[in-house]
Amino acid sequence: MPIDMTEVRQLFFEESLESLDLMEANLLDMTVGESDKELINSIFRVAHSIKGGAGIFKFENVVHFAHIAETLLGEIRSNEQSISQNIINTLLDAVDVLRMVLIALRDAHSYNENLVNQCQANLIQLLKKPFCEVDTTAINQTTTETAVITTPVITAPSSAPVVIKPQKQWKINFHPHAQIFQTGNDPLNLFMALAELGELTIHVDTGDLPSLEHLTPQQCYLAWELLLTTDADKSAIEEVFEWVLEESQLNIELLNTVIANTATEADSIITDSTISSPELVPQIVIHNENNENTANISPSENITLSTTCTENSPLEPASIPAFSEQSTTSQTHEITNDLPVTEILNSGKITEHTDEVHHRTVHTNLLAGEATSIRVNIDKIDELINIVGELVITQSMLDQISQNFELKKLNQLRDGLAQLERNTRELQDSIMRIRMLPISYSFNRFPRLVHDLSVTLGKKVELRLSGESTELDKTVLEKMSDPLVHLVRNALDHGIEPPEERLAKGKLEYGILSLHAYHQGGTIIIQISDDGGGIDLNKIYQKALVMNLLKPTEAVTEEQLYEFIFHAGFSTAQQVSDVSGRGVGMDVVRRNIRSLGGAIEVSSKINQGTTFTIRLPLTLAILDGQLVRVGEQIYILSLLSIIESLRLLPSQINLLAGKAEVYHLRNEYIPIVRLYRLFNIETPIRNLEDGLIVIVEGEGQKIGLFVDELLSQQQIVIKSLETNYKQVAGISGATILGDGSVALILDVISLIKLSQQKTIHYPHSTALPTFTNPSMLN
Amino acid sequence: MTTILVSDDSHAMLQMLTFVLQSAGYELQTANNGKDALKLAQQQTFDLIITDFNMPDLDGLSLLRLLRAMPQYQFKPILLLTTETDPAIKQAAREAKATGWVNKPFDPDKLLAAVKKVLG
């Protein structure tokens, strides 16, 4: 295998982006006029290490940019500069620019050079000493004082030797038996397998090839001389030929051991293995995919087999098509090693892809450095390994029992199965825990956001974060990020008053915005609270009247008024500012949270502040479920939504308008939904006294679901119904039960809505599929 | 689509093979014994046949010989699954024109490498 630099590159990007986050946090901690040695040193180190890393990968403009930032930081460190708000802001911009450039390089996108140039000019302007060039030992780029980067849009990311395995060059003489095809073996496939081991050059000997009239197509007349550069040893090569060893002449000899010189191959983004050295002309690059054409390869041509770059490509999946296409063109175009990638991309029909890539990059959000990989605490991995170890022991134990099984081993078997169950559960828990990330991943972006926003809005705000280590499923975390940003923006824009107003009200000049996360039972609570002006219920009332959401005669509770905040198009802001009051509204925030199975509540006191409380499930993949039976069907209810289950007293059942049934329970009237009727299921239990009522709550409303009986409670792995079938009203998903049958998970909120419609007229049925085949969900 | 016929008298082994090969994206048909395998192989031409060595009714070697006599399988890859490490068996397999063999119990990676080696 050629040395895989993609991984090292990936590591560089991950680390750099992480250290930029640190630099940002440190910058936000800096106070104007004060010089905190530790903070400055830490910031300096980030700039320095990015410069160093970028140097290895020859990202010259990153090196240059980081060098300027480093120079400025050096001046601060040696007290030649004092820290001003201007310096902090410019350095924060520099963080953004570096982040943008690094993300662009990582994803092989282009980026906005103007931003880079502008920020660079700003940095240079701040320098006390005239700016001197970067050591030319590291970079051989000459730039003028204005330091405008002139390199093309994309600098080819390159690999450089860091980890070097000794590469050996093997010469393999392979003269297969004439009848080799008759065993179903094909030399081409063998060479393909060899090419997996490293760089392979094939030379075919056609000396034995008879003239066409004497040629038997089923026979093999060819012999090959192969040169393989690999770190694999002889036995690995022999293994490839294992099945044809006997009948064939095979000679493997070691030519020499070389230290791979990646420097010459390193200048192209198409990994070093794809393009063969230029002196081999004509040359053909064969992919694993289009391998049927051996017959077409004329003798005496040198063929380079290699694994394609798509396999261990450093690129995002989206950009792969561009590259596979590019590789195809490499058969016709002559590509020299030092041709910049931009030019390759611009040649021929690939141009449209570049445009697309460019287009996409323009929209790249700076904060959207969303990682496709997650960093997992080593303890979690160790735990996983531990459990897998136990699982292996259990397996071998069961294996032993199964050999010569007799009835007296039954107890052993039972123990073994119990152990297996425990292992499985632990494994499941551990795997789930790997997906859990501390909420600090989301919270950490807020210091910067609050800093920038408070500058824009002219407000003074202190941000308090707590419970950052609370862990949350990665998907939930990612989906929560936009709603949280929206709520924070709202709090700053509408909640916290300008300093003068606060002082006039007798409050502290600094407004306090706090983000607080904690566990409560099986849920995660995130609170966003401010000590600002609070929500003026009067204003909401007026606005609701104007919008015709409310009649002047209607009596309305506080809760109902707060509810209007989440109404689409509802804003009491006097004018739309560029911070909030447009774009995603609170309705979208709530929809996002609900789509995660969560809920949002608001409480507010005038002039004292507002608190938004978000409740989220720990994970989306598993829920604690209550199995209920209706006729032959089994349904699942989330345990969290169940309040109680009871048998009805006939005397407490009332009929509303002669149709809708309600149950009078402790001063409440609870509508009853007969599931068998809603889903049109045959069941002998039709009398309300014979079955059970499960009272469930969703969005503050309660309904009683009439079921035949309650079955067990168990953890349910949720499978999406939408991706496998289609969305069904009243159903949020499905799962496969222990016996292999499919059970549907009831969606309480949509059931409540359904029941409200159905009370008007019961239709014959809601078409609901019956599932028998679990494979539909896989 | 590459279609593979797998033949083994052990249900567990068949399940394992199915799991490994299907997760690697191959289309599969399975047979419980040599006779069924032969029947399936006559109905459609598979790109690869993997068969167990020891099977009731029709053993792997005989199946292999019958398949090689059929024109559509003359050059097709056929792999034998074998628990025996006896060189004589490998010799017999070679003489019956087996493409190669995979040892049981198999390592999924090795099995896939072998399949890849014969299918390209």
Give an account of the 3D structure.
- The complex is a heterodimer of chains A (778) and B (120).
- With 778 residues, chain A is α+β, with helices and mostly antiparallel strands.
- Chain A is 36% helix and 21% strand.
- Chain A is built from 22 helices and 24 strands.
- The longest helix of chain A is centred in the middle third of the chain and has 26 residues.
- Chain B is α/β, with parallel strands linked by helices.
- In chain B, strands 2-1-3-4-5 form a five-stranded parallel β-sheet, with helices on both faces.
- In chain B, helix 2 packs parallel to helix 3.
- The longest helix of chain B has 13 residues.
- Chain B is globular, with a radius of gyration of 13 Å.
- The model of chain B has no long low-confidence stretch (mean pLDDT 86).
- At the A-B interface, helix 6 of A face helix 5 of B.
State the separation between the terminal residues of chain B, measured CA to CA: 13 Å
Give the neighbour order of strands across the main sheet of chain A: 4-1-3-2-6-5
Can you write the helix and strand succession of chain B as a string? EHEHEHEHEH
Shape type of chain A? flat
Q: How does the overall form of chain B come out from the CA principal axes?
A: globular
What is the overall number of helices of chain B? Answer: 5
Q: Going across the major beta sheet of chain B, what is the strand order? A: 2-1-3-4-5
Assembly state (oligomeric) = heterodimer
How far do the termini of chain A sit from each other? 35 Å
Low-pLDDT residue spans of chain A? 133-164, 260-370, 574-583, 759-778
Q: What fraction of the residues of chain B are assigned to beta strands by DSSP?
A: 15-25%
Assign a percent range to the helix content of chain B: 40-55%
